[in-house]
Amino acid sequence: MIRKSPIKEIKMVALTVMLMFPTLASGQDSDFGNWMMYFGNKKIDSKWNLHHEVQYRNYNTIGDLEQLLLRAGLGYNITENTNLLVGYGYVLSENYIVDSDEKFQVNEHRIYQQVISKQKFKGLSVQHRYRFEQRFVEDNFKLRFRYFLGANVQLSKKETNRCYLSAYNEIFINTESNVFDRNRLYGGFGYKISDSVRVELGYMNQFFETGSRDQLNMITFVNF
């Protein structure tokens, strides 16, 4: 079997997203946000891996930037199903001034450590992620814990099946007086383009202490 190049597969995904833009652009006046995300993983050898990701988050469906997040890390496989990773992240946020259409920018640098544990039960894949973040937000220093529980369910028992359902819940906990930071609940549909590339389209509700927000998530995963 001839294996397609991951670069060609990424181009196919990018073209698909671009073709969707005209439809999405018609909803710019909506309060329904959109996150476009890319997650990449480069296997160095049987033990080490490089993680990298780009997330472009909009207040509206497209065209009103909320956050640009860049993250990278170096991981080590403690066991076949457990990975320890240390990394760095940069976040550019554009926040609205209250009762105004004006924005101000906030720069954040993060150092983080995480452990990912995976389990498989026939057509069900489960993932636990424990992450600890040290956040440098302008002149402030903050600490935050995150716990992620996700699951993918194949829609068919056939080996050729490429479709699956995806769901996760992630809770964020601060070390300050306001302990609860936020909670993210997600459900989506995924398609495996190949063994190296898969894409997802889903809905996420992000719940804060004082409100909530809905997002359309468009996600690409690439393993090199």
Can you give me a brief rundown of this structure?
This protein is mainly β and 224 residues long. It contains one helix and eleven strands, in the order H-E-E-E-E-E-E-E-E-E-E-E.
Tally of alpha and pi helices: 1
Shape: globular
Write down the Rg. 18 Å
| Name of the CATH first level | Mainly Beta
Q: What would CATH call the homologous superfamily?
A: monomeric porin ompg
| Total strand segments | 11
**Helix-strand topology string:** HEEEEEEEEEEE
Rounded mean pLDDT is: 88
User: Which structural class do the helices and strands define?
Assistant: mainly beta
Q: Which bin fits the share of residues in helices? A: under 10%
CATH topology: Porin
Distance between the termini: 18 Å
Main β-sheet, in a few words? Answer: 11 strands, mixed, barrel
Q: Which second-level CATH architecture applies?
A: Beta Barrel
Beta-strand proportion: over 45%
Taking strands numbered 1, 2, ... along the chain, how are they ordered across the largest sheet? 1-2-3-4-5-6-7-8-9-10-11
Question: Which regions have little confidence, pLDDT < 50, spanning 5+ residues?
Answer: 13-30
| Count of domain modules | 1
